[in-house]
Design brief:
Layout lengths: L3 H13 L6 E3 L5 E2 L6 E4 L3 H8 L3 H10 L2 E4 L2 H12 L9 H4 L3 H14 L22 H12 L3 H8 L20 H16 L6 E5 L5 H10 L2 E6 L2 H13 L6 E5 L10 E7 L10 H11 E14 L12 H7 L8 H10 L3 E7 L1 H17 L1 H7 L2 H19 L3 E9 L23
Parallel strand pairs: 1-3, 5-6, 5-8, 6-7, 8-9
Antiparallel strand pairs: 1-2, 3-4, 9-11, 10-11
């Protein structure tokens, strides 16, 4: 009798102490769970062994990346249905050791072991980062981390990001249903950054973490500034340089493979750091802020565009998301926006404006997921199935995290205000208004 799905449903509900809101479809063809709900497809017993040897998020991630687990139905609905049981059990949730004191939980674990088969730990999928020993956020470790994420292949990123090739939160003037495209929204975000920085012809702009060159090209072409863009990714730099040449901007835009800590040709009139500071790490953040402050002229502006997490009651308990750390952004760290503002101020900046654009990132991510899903067959010709599955899961889960206010994203505008106190800012800061498209 095919009953693996029902057994799994009962075991999971015993372990979680709550009913499952997804269906279970097992390798033997059996199904169990709420009718009409998305199905969590357990393709083989190896998925269970992954969960047993790495309980929690990392075991689930390994099973997903390897293709041992899948979802039949809407991925967003499935993730929302599982979030309250698996990822949002809260700081008051029982720890593993305490839970295993419960006889029913111990019995459920034994049942899962029997159902999983021979107790051999499966090897992690090849897409999982292999960590070298040593300190975090050194120049060497940062190069490795950036390469893992960004040197996946420019063709793959073109497929996901679309023609704008901007890998950060877009700025939507209206909901996408109102006719706005992703490319329009990314143009508007770049223009908003330029307006906040007050760019004018002849100024020097440093774009830290320049990606594929979109911000550098926009600033040079639309505002007449001279730009230095720095990245640690060789693939990004090669792509950006070709774009710069194709635009006829080689006299105004220089793309370097360089660590921001090694930039020594300041001062600059303005600095943009868009979606880069998440890689810096808490230990290095004051150094990051101090370096950028050093590179600016008196009165120069910094626009720091950065994802933020919610503060915890016990900040020492913060840990990096296991799936993201192992498969997406190795060594990446998120900080509360208040911590970021404090560190910028400690470095000498005067913070003039903070704009929260959380909902905009959810809209952006859903567009990226739609791009990937629409071109899934093409994506599998560019990267491994595991890598494509990583990107689909992390972008969909991140969209939900922004929508549910679990994480946010903020643009922080700061000035290197001189001793005279003349910041150069208008009396009413938000005079930049909505960006205009030609």
């Amino acid at each position: 009798m095919a009953d693996a799905a029902l057994r799994l449903q009962n075991l999971f509900e015993q372990l979680l102490g709550a009913p499952l809101r997804v269906r279970i479809r097992a390798w033997d063809g059996s199904e169990a769970g709420p009718p009409g709900a998305p199905a969590l497809v357990v393709r083989n017993r190896r998925a269970l062994r992954r969960l047993l040897f790495k309980p929690g998020e990392l075991g689930l991630a390994r099973a997903w990346v390897a293709g041992d687990l899948d979802v039949d139905g809407d991925l967003y609905t499935a993730l929302e249905s599982m979030a309250g049981l698996l990822w949002e059990r809260g700081e008051d949730a029982r720890g593993t050791a305490e839970a295993l004191r419960d006889p029913e939980v111990r019995a459920a674990v034994r049942g899962l072991v029997r159902l999983a088969g021979p107790p051999l730990p499966p090897a992690p999928p090849p897409e999982e980062v292999r960590r070298a020993r040593g300190h975090l956020h050194t120049r060497r470790s940062d190069r490795r981390a950036i390469s893992h994420h960004y040197d996946v292949g420019n063709d793959f990123y073109e497929l996901v990001l679309g023609p704008s090739m901007v890998y950060s939160c877009a700025y939507w003037a209206a909901p996408p249903a109102g006719g706005g495209t992703l490319e329009d929204a990314q143009h508007d975000k770049l223009e908003l950054v330029c307006r906040k920085l007050g760019l004018s012809p002849g100024q020097r702009l440093l774009d830290v973490g320049c990606g594929w060159g979109s911000m550098a090209i926009h600033a040079a072409r639309e505002h007449g500034v001279n730009v230095v863009g720095v990245t640690l990714s060789q693939e990004q730099a090669a792509y950006a340089r070709k774009r710069v040449a194709d635009e006829g901007l080689t006299d105004r835009v220089e793309i370097r493979v360089q660590d921001y800590r090694d930039v020594a040709d300041g001062p600059y009139d303005a600095i943009s750091s868009i979606g880069m500071a998440e890689h810096v790490g808490a230990e290095r953040y004051l150094e990051y802020a101090t370096d950028l402050h050093r590179l600016l002229k008196p009165g120069g502006r910094l626009l720091n565009h950065q994802i933020a997490r919610r503060p915890q009651r016990d900040e020492s308990a913060y840990h990096v998301d296991e799936f993201i750390d192992a498969y997406v952004f190795p060594d990446g760290e998120l900080a509360p926006v208040g911590t970021t503002v404090t560190q910028l101020e400690r470095a000498g900046f005067e913070v003039r404006d903070v704009e929260a654009i959380r909902e905009h990132y959810a809209l952006t991510l859903r567009r990226w997921v739609a791009n990937l899903e629409a071109e899934w067959t093409a994506a599998l010709k560019l990267v491994s199935p595991g890598r494509a599955r990583v990107w689909r899961l992390y972008m969909a889960a991140s969209a939900l995290a922004f929508e549910r206010n679990r994480i946010g994203v903020n643009q922080v505008l700061a000035v290197k205000t001189p001793d005279s106190g003349a910041s150069g800012m208008p009396l009413r800061a938000r005079v930049w208004g909505e960006p205009d498209r030609a």
